[in-house]
Amino acid sequence: DNLTVGIKLICSNCGAHLEKDDKFCVNCGQSVFNNPKTKTEHNFNSQDRQCPKCHKVVNVDDKFCINCGHSLQQTLSNSNDNIASHTYSNTKPEIENETADHIRLTEEAKHLFNNTTKSIGRLAGNDESLKLNLRDMFSEVFKSHTKDEADDVFIAGTKRTTPHINEVSEEWGRPWVFSRVFLALGITFLALWILTNIFDNANAIPGMIFIGALLVPISGLIFFFESNAFKNISIFDVMRMFFIGGVLSLISTMILYQFVTFSTESQYYGIMTITDAFI
C-alpha cells in the first residue's frame, strides 16, 4: 500500500490509547489482552504515506513516486476500498439487527390492526379481517369540493335518499366534510380567543369554552356519519342521539356517583387515584 495505516488500540474502560503489545491499560489497569470490547482506531497521516515499490516517503497529492515513478493512484484506491469494506463488515450485523427489529415491529402492528378490524367486522357478521387503507380513506380531505357535494352528504338518511341494500358500495367511504367542520369550529374558537385575550371581552369566554369543547366531538361525529356506508341515518337522528345521549350519560354517571365513595385525595385535589379509576 502507498498509504500506511496505523492501527491503535483503545481501552474500552477509559478510552486511553494503548500500544500493540500492552496487556493492561497504563491509565486504569483494565485488562486488554484478548478483550473483545477493545476498540481499534485507524490513523491516517500524510507523513506516513510511502511508495509501495521503493518505500520512499511521498506527499499526499502525489500521483506518481518521484523516486521510481510508480503510479500511486491505483494503490490509494485499493487501500480506500479495503478500509470501506472493513467498516461495512463491522456495521453490517448492526444494520441487519435494526432492519429485523423494524420488520418485526411492522408485522406486529399489522397483526394487531388486522385483529382489531376482524373483531369489529365480527360484530357486523363478517369473520374476515377488514382491508382498510387509511391513505385511500382520507384521500378526499385535501381535495377541493363544492357546496353541492357537501349538501349531498347531509341529505343522506331520508326516505328518498337512502340507497337500496343492493346499491350499497362494498368499498370504504372517503369522508371529507368532517375536516371542514373541524376547520370552521377551529376558526370560530380562534376568533373567540382573540375577543377574550386581545379585546378583553369577557362575554366571549363562555362561547370559547363551548366551541372548544365541541371542536373534536362534533368533527368525530360528522366523520362517523360520513363513514356510514348504508346512508340510512339522517343528520337529525345523529345530532339527537349525540345531545340527548350525552345528557343521559351525565345523569347516569351522577346516579352512580351516589353509590361510590372516592378517596380523600380525589375530593381535595380533584385528581383520581388508581383505585378511584378502577372503581
TrEMBL record:
Chain segments annotated as transmembrane: 181-199, 205-226, 238-260
InterPro entries linked to this entry: DZR
Keyword Membrane in annotation: yes
Transmembrane keyword on record: yes
UniProt keyword annotations, A-Z: Membrane, Transmembrane, Transmembrane helix
Limits of the DZANK-type domain: 11-69
Identification of the protein by name: DZANK-type domain-containing protein
Species per Swiss-Prot/TrEMBL record: marine sediment metagenome
